[in-house]
Amino acid sequence: MNARMSESFEAIDRTAREEDVPDPFRAIVRAGWTSEGDALLLSALHFGYSGTPLPEFGDVIHYEASVNGRGMMDYDIPESDPERHKTLLRRSLGYACTALLEVPGNCPWPMFGYISLSEGGLEDDLLTAHVTFCSARPGLPPYVDDMDSYKHEALLEVSQDDAKALLRKSGAQSR
Is 144 left (phi over 0), alpha (psi -120 to 50) or beta? Predict the structure, then answer.
């Protein structure tokens, strides 16, 4: 992972605010969660998913990550904006936390959000962010086995407990 990407996670204020989440992503959260077999999926993303079906997928965790993953909206952030990485990460963290707080209480497995920051675009020189969600289950390999092994992107894992704490902190500061 290059220094610019790893420093990006360190440079942001680790509080999440719903107002940082773009409207299309708020709509995804408002649509809620649904189940397909053992998979827990964001309803709005499941509706539009046209990839490999669950029965043909290697495991339910990676199916969840595939269906629930989206690139964070960034078309309104200038490529040259020195705050681009902070804006992308604030949006992504806000989205991850608000979605995790809406996971149904009867879900038998813990759900996690994964935020990645990497260089993309036509020349691989444009910072982009991606957010996905999946569960952790006994007997199945985790979505990410070794966070430190990611060398070409910065990766942040957010648990449901993290989401509660981050949004609580933000709410207390904004009142």
Answer: beta
* Region for residue 121 given its phi and psi (left: phi exceeds 0; alpha: psi -120 to 50; beta: otherwise): left
What residues are paired with 71 via a beta bridge?
A: 130
What are the helix and strand counts (H, E) for the chain? Answer: 6, 6
| DSSP letters for 66-87 | HHH-EEPP-TTS-TT-TTHHHH
pTM of this structure: 0.86
- The DSSP string of 17-41 is -GGGS-HHHHHHHHT-EEEETTEEE
Q: Which helix (H) or strand (E) holds 136?
A: none
Q: By mean pLDDT, which of 25-29, 69-73, 94-98 is the weakest?
A: 69-73
